[in-house]
């Protein structure tokens, strides 16, 4: 599996990240990177699940409520 985060910068300045297929080994690092980017971009974040996305359980870290 290749771990990758795909990003798009929209004309209105919105930055979109797609994180489909992050391995368990890199999951926490990806979460930390996305949190850094959230802070860097003004603390606004919305999350959308893809229709075929699987639920997962986080070990040894947590997310803020509402994210």
| Unreliably modeled segments | none
Quaternary state of this entry equals: single chain
Order of helices and strands: EEH
- The chain-level structural class is alpha+beta
Q: Helix share of residues?
A: 25-40%
Strand content: 5-15%
Which whole number gives the mean pLDDT? 78
The major beta sheet can be summarized as:
2 strands, antiparallel
Q: What is the rounded distance between the termini? A: 26 Å
User: How big is the Rg?
Assistant: 12 Å
Number of β-strand runs: 2
| Helical segment count | 1
Shape: globular
Strand order of the largest sheet: 1-2
Structure description:
It is a single chain. This protein is of the alpha+beta class and 67 residues long. The chain has a domain at 6-40. The chain has one helix and two strands. The chain has one helix at residues 24-40; strands spanning 6-9, 15-18. The chain has a two-stranded antiparallel ribbon. It is globular. The chain starts with 5 loop residues before the first strand and ends in a 27-residue tail after the last helix. The mean pLDDT is 78.
